[in-house]
């Protein structure tokens, strides 16, 4: 098995997990970013006839939607577009009892508000997973999962994580192997939670620094690492542990 290319190993693994669950295919959310583009192509390779990509804009950038469509067209993926903008606005109005305009310009995108987006998308993904007996394939990578950079019960609520053991830097190499469009590989990573939001600004460091720090923590060799970055990564790992572990249960 180790002699196979990484892409082949991942697609074989996806098939195995779907078979174990007695499911018939896979569904994945397509945001137009690198993570979801890579996973979508892997899903298409694993299940050419029973894979579905959901494009779910929610006050999203036009470029992101166009990039998701670009990947779908290039790799001949079956997709469904569901605009969640009005549902998001209506849901938020119900929660907060405040009036937001149709364009959502008055919505202040703090973390609780922004996290509604991936949680609404999770509902859609599981609707179609239930409808077609598919599994939901997540797009998180090892870098993000390690420090809890995902929304609990949002993009973190999935059945499979094919990139879960790949660092962001390794994922970029895989994207090139899969021939993901260069515009997607080169664009600034963003979860698209609000205008101008980027992954690295929220993390407080670049993915290169994060990956270098995570590798150092695994090997125990911190030479060349910034002590403050190491301290910050360790704290992110500690405070996000509840996101990765099973629900804590009191034992009588």
From TrEMBL:
Keywords for this protein: ATP-binding, Ligase, Magnesium, Metal-binding, NAD, Nucleotide-binding
Domain NAD/GMP synthase: start-end pairs: 8-245
Pfam short name (any one): NAD_synthase
Catalytic reactions on record: deamido-NAD(+) + NH4(+) + ATP = AMP + diphosphate + NAD(+) + H(+)
Pathway: Cofactor biosynthesis; NAD(+) biosynthesis; NAD(+) from deamido-NAD(+) (ammonia route): step 1/1
Gene Ontology MF term list: ATP binding; glutaminase activity; metal ion binding; NAD+ synthase (glutamine-hydrolyzing) activity; NAD+ synthase activity
EC number in record: 6.3.1.5
Broad enzyme group: ligase
Binding annotation for deamido-NAD(+): 119, 152, 159, 242-243
Residues given in the record as ATP binding sites: 29-36, 139, 168, 190
InterPro entries: NAD/GMP_synthase, NAD_synthase, NH(3)-dep_NAD(+)_synth, Rossmann-like_a/b/a_fold
Highest rank taxon of the organism: Archaea
Subunit structure comment from the entry: Homodimer.
HAMAP family on file: NadE_ammonia_dep
Role noted for this protein: Catalyzes the ATP-dependent amidation of deamido-NAD to form NAD. Uses ammonia as a nitrogen source.
Family according to the record: Belongs to the NAD synthetase family.
Annotated protein name in UniProt: NH(3)-dependent NAD(+) synthetase
